[in-house]
């Protein structure tokens, strides 16, 4: 009798694992979105763009494909910005560009020293 109960328990655990792993046809249905998806704009990103991104919430959480697309885009743009910053840093180090004065505001035009 105990052997039958043990085999039954093993079978139940096996079915539960198969359903949880998605290998059995009794898995959950495809996720359905419940909120509007607002992707990143198709232009160079600014920090405020990330404040407005929304992902559709599905039965099991966010849509992984939407999250992956945003992360891929962010990775690409950050890599491009890092590359441009490295190029600009190399140009400044080589004397090709004048570095802004330490008290200068970011984005302000560089000033020339007055000649006497």
Structure description:
The protein has a two-stranded antiparallel ribbon with strand order 1-2. The chain is built from 3 helices and 2 strands. The N and C termini lie far apart (106 Å). The model has no long low-confidence stretch (mean pLDDT 75). The chain is mainly alpha-helical. It has a domain at 31-94.
Q: What structural class do helix, strand and pairing data support?
A: mainly alpha
* Uncertain regions spanning at least 5 consecutive residues: none
SS element count, helices:
3
Write out the strand line-up for the largest beta sheet, numbering strands in chain order. 1-2
Portion of residues in helices? 40-55%
Percent of residues in β-strands: under 5%
What's the gyration radius in Å? 28 Å
Shape: elongated
Mean pLDDT across every amino acid position: 75
Instruction: Please provide the count of β strands.
Output: 2
- Beginning-to-end CA distance, first to last residue: 106 Å
Main beta-sheet strand count, sense and barrel state:
2 strands, antiparallel
Order of helices and strands: HHEEH
Oligomer: single chain
Which terms summarize this structure?
116 residues; 47% helix; single chain; mainly alpha; elongated; 3 helices; two-stranded antiparallel sheet
Summarize the model shown.
By secondary structure, the chain is mostly helical. The chain has three helices and two strands; from the N terminus they run ααββα.
């Amino acid at each position: 009798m105990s052997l039958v109960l043990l085999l039954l328990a093993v079978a139940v655990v096996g079915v539960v694992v198969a359903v949880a792993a998605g290998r059995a046809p009794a898995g959950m249905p495809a996720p359905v979105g419940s909120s509007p998806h607002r992707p990143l704009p198709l232009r160079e990103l600014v920090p405020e763009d990330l404040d407005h991104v929304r992902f559709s919430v599905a039965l099991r959480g966010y849509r992984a494909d939407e999250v992956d697309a945003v992360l891929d885009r962010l990775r690409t743009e950050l890599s491009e910005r890092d590359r441009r910053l490295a190029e600009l840093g190399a140009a400044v180090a080589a004397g090709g560009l004048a570095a802004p004065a330490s008290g200068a505001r970011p984005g302000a035009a560089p000033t020339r020293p007055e000649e006497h």
